[in-house]
């Protein structure tokens, strides 16, 4: 019954007037993704705190672009460990070539067809570690190029009919660690088809169920046969308020009938099973949180390595520039020293030639004095 109530809150009141607004600050970077490589994208720098549908309207985006880049070069949007309860609206007015969207560990509660419709070129969608419960029918009708969808570690209890069937390019589909299903397909279109078949049997409420229960007979009393009410539930094309109430009422009736039928001993058994299920669920949640923390550390290490790599590249470039400058200075110094040396040699040569002339003159005078005919 709790799931039904949660489902009810997720599906009503979607089309509200977006009167509030939110600003986003980007720290632009370039990175490789699973399918698309070398994507210039917008990692959300500060927490935008989108806690209502009204605040999901994005009216301004700030941040310093890398050299030569503009909004038209942005191909991805990445929000990590932020408060984004509702899918941001209006990103397409700033970034018109979005191929990658990742909203990771942001407590995202719902996503609708209208949220994804502005991104017809979307190739990869990551909505992991959030609070999604429902994937509505037609969710990806306007995203035919999707190759990768990551929805693991959510709380999905219902997936509408044929949500993934038309995505002929889809080769990675991750739905593990959800409530109605825990399966994934990696880099295989055939495995994706297997996951889709599992979805139809585990996450679609579209089957007719008849329940007939007879309590055991005893020797002290005549045999009694009590039949629980027959229920037929067919999923409407779109879940609405009335269908949720009707389904909840049927579940209440069945629960009341079963309680009368099974008696106290079975109730205790069910209670024990329920406690075991709750313990298992808690252990699974703890494991999921531990994996999330490991993933957080991995993400932080990756960011740190990227920063160190950028610093290393900058140092290499600075060293190269310095080496070239030092080499040129050395050449200039050698050239200057060479010129000074040539000048010194010329001066010395001139002096030697002058001395030779003086000696020749003295020799001539001596010869004249001795009356030696030269």
**SSE arrangement, N to C:** HEEEEEEHEEEEEEHH
Termini separation comes to 138 Å
Overall radius of gyration: 39 Å
* Estimated helix fraction: 40-55%
> In terms of structural class, how would the helical and strand content be classed?
alpha/beta
What's the layout of helices and strands?
Layout: H1 2-11, E1 22-25, E2 29-31, E3 39-43, E4 58-62, E5 76-80, E6 100-104, H2 113-116, E7 124-126, E8 134-135, E9 148-150, E10 158-159, E11 172-174, E12 184-185, H3 189-202, H4 241-369
Parallel strand pairs: 1-4, 3-5, 5-6, 6-7, 7-9, 8-10, 9-11
Antiparallel strand pairs: 2-3, 11-12
Helix pairs in contact: 1-4
Please characterize this protein's 3D structure:
The chain is an alpha/beta fold and 374 residues long. Helix content is 42%, strand content 11%. The protein has helices at 2-11, 113-116, 189-202, 241-369, and strands at residues 22-25, 29-31, 39-43, 58-62, 76-80, 100-104, 124-126, 134-135, 148-150, 158-159, 172-174, 184-185. The strands form 3 sheets. The protein has an 8-stranded mixed beta sheet, covered by helices on one side. The model is unreliable at 1-19 and 207-239 (pLDDT under 50).
